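Thread: quick sanity check before group meeting

JM: Hey all, I'm pulling together slides for Thursday and realized we never actually wrote out the predicted structure for the chain we discussed last week. Dropping the sequence here so it's in one place. If anyone has concerns about the input, flag it before I start.
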Amino acid sequence: MAANLRTRVCRRTAVQHKSLPTLIYLGLVIFIASGCHRIPPVDMAPLFNAGMSYDAVHQLTALHVTDAEVAQIATARQAGLSDAGCIALVKLFHDRVGPFDAGDSVASMLGAGMSEETVIEISKLNQMGFLAGELEAIRLVGLPDSVVLEVARRHSEGKPVLSGASLGRMKNAGIRESTLSQLIERGVPDSQVDAILSARRRGMSDAKILRNFTGS
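JM (edit): ok, ran it. Output follows.
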């Protein structure tokens, strides 16, 4: 009988020790919860200060933007991006890459003369990152948005394409924009640029350049 009593006591003690970690865990959860404070709301004032409408700010609130995103959105808005454009870009980033952090790039692109539609299309192609500066440079040398977008498309598809520096050199040599566009579409690489410029210096016309440099 004494042996049975000792067995019951040992089993009860073992159960108590086994449940101890769970009790400690529950206690910690209650302690942490009781000490937590309500997370402060995101400050949307920079968006109002940038000229954004209440309705647009309300839509961005529903997208759960962070304070860091608000700063980037405000930068883009102040650079001339419309309310609808801001919302569209935030949605694109949230759906694909995460937080919107391209406000500075958007501002630079718009400042270089790109249209809002072009900037949004570049974002759809997922070329708003490291390629943004290259695309901006292409626009700054005076080439139109159509050329910028073609370069972005080829980059997004992993196809060979002329760099902004090469396009600038050829434009300065007097090669027409329509010719440059065709060279881009054909996939003419940077390695052929020196040969094209040499031919141009010898008096080769745009039509002959297109006949002689067919790309990939």
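AS: nice. The chain has 13 helices and no strands. The CA atoms of residues 85 and 113 lie 16 Å apart.
JM: adding both to the slides.
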